[in-house]
What does this fold into?
Amino acid sequence: MSRDPLVGDSERRINDAAERRRAERSQRNDARAKLSLRALLTAAAAERCEVVIETVAGVTRRLVIIEIGEDGFAATLRNGVVIVQRNSSLASVTTGHGFPLTATDETASDETDLGGNADFVDLIRRWIEPDTSISARSGNATFAGVLSAIGTDVIAIAATSGVLTYVSVDSLAEVSASSS
It folds into this structure.
């Protein structure tokens, strides 16, 4: 009895399609296993998509990331800018439905126009001018006033009473400035 050649071709096409689906699924799983927070933030910045972050202090913010730094990032809010310390204060990032889970450190290094080398102090210097009203969060403490100076590891905040408070940059979770 002879075999119908069309049946063999059919089986081969079905097997080939199944193999392609397995390979694609394996690639997606590999990419998800390599996902990193820095890469995710970089991808969100590259797309200029809105994300929701929650800090370890329980502060939730809806923002658009505009620059990624070595240990933090700058983002726009509806009414200003915020600089967030990534490693010590960021608890979670929520992206929109369908955001790709393929952001790895390899893809993050390709995003050269988003910064990457600036540390937290540099981000503050780039995005918040001296003599701007700010709010700086450090644990459960919030320091509000006018940014008087940005040092190498400290910022000076002048209260309306004129008293200066010097806050260690390493202790900060975020610094935000509202646009007037």
User: Anything to note?
Assistant: The helical segments are 5-33, 37-47, 86-89, 105-109, 120-127. The first helix runs from residue 5 to 33. The mean pLDDT is 82. The radius of gyration is 23 Å.
